Amino acid sequence: MREGVGSWAVVEEPETPEARPYTPGVHEDFDRLYQTTFPRVVRTVAGIVGSLHAAEDCAQDAFLRAYRAWPEWRAEVPAEAWLYRIAVNTAISHRRRERIRTLPALLLRLGPPPHEPDPADRAQSRAILPELRRLPPKQAAALIFRFYHGFSNREIAAALGVSERTVGQRIADGLKSLRARLGDGSF
User: Could you give the C-alpha distances from 121 to 118, 124, 143, 187, in angstroms and in order?
Assistant: First the structure.
């Protein structure tokens, strides 16, 4: 065949380890999943639990749970989405336990309301992470997947185990809450 106009050559790219499909129960595949997703899982969970230290603990717990369930994982669900679902559920459980632990302290502090800080000071110290933390965890998770990871509603739905419509509603509700709290249209 003559090179130039009209000739096509198929060049196959070498397969990277990250591009190979995962096989349930294969320890090397789980190691590869861990290596490629751990930093993203930590960042995702940090948006839900609010601190990097707690996020690392939750991520470790999520990977431990995933490792124990790895032989039963069904390959029709993407491994990353399956793992994110475990991680988000772990983070939600962490926040639930954290709230229960802080309840007695909150009851002891009841009394006159604290002095409101100057709105100008609040505006200068405003950060998105504390505002995400104030949202219900399921809304925060949907917003993090959308705006931090760039996931589509379908990918978010697979990661959270809910319908795409539910994802859309969580994103809309979360954005509405953030806009109301931030009040400056920055989100």
Answer: 5, 5, 26, 19
